[in-house]
Design brief:
Distance between the termini: 49 Å
Mean pLDDT: 77
Strand content: under 5%
Oligomer: single chain
Structural class: mainly alpha
Low-confidence stretches: none
Number of strands: 0
Length: 155
């Protein structure tokens, strides 16, 4: 029994030490060859899950680009699309993966640039992209990478 317990402790210690030794160094892995495929995979997940939202945003941006104001039905659709996009940008697996890459490399611009490229690819105008980037929810998604979550005192 003593031998088994010692073996278990030694094996556990060796496993923990080897895990620490194999943790990648951000300075080594944060090259464009490492970042690009991971960011692209994450963006593809977001694009797949939010395709209808982006389609609605694109239609609204075309209306604004033509100098017109969207009607009430289009504004309602736009509101729903923004709520759906908000959900994807706060809870979706794609944004979680993108945040992981950005945190690993300590570069929040990875998210900002990837999302901007995605919205342009979907046909959203630069004017609407700027408005989306100014939304507090979007700003919160970006700032949560560089700033830790605030600790709220319990009462």
């Amino acid at each position: 029994m003593k031998f088994f317990l010692r073996s278990l402790i030694l094996t556990s210690t060796a496993a923990l030490l080897s895990a620490c030794a194999s943790t990648p160094d951000p300075a080594v892995i944060c090259s464009s060859e490492w970042i690009a495929p991971r960011a692209e995979t994450a963006i593809n997940r977001i694009e797949k899950r939010a395709k209808s939202s982006f389609r609605t945003l694109s239609k609204a941006s075309k209306t604004w680009s033509a100098g017109k104001t969207p009607g009430p039905i289009q504004m309602y659709s736009l509101s729903r699309a923004l709520k759906s996009l908000e959900k994807e940008l706060t809870q979706g697996q794609g944004i979680k993966d993108l945040k992981m890459v950005a945190k690993t490399c300590n570069n929040p611009n990875i998210i900002k640039n990837s999302m901007r490229d995605l919205m342009r690819r979907q046909g959203v105008s630069d004017r609407l992209i700027q408005q989306i980037e100014d939304f507090p929810i979007y700003q919160n998604a970006i700032s949560s990478i560089t700033e830790p979550e605030p600790v709220t005192p319990s009462r």
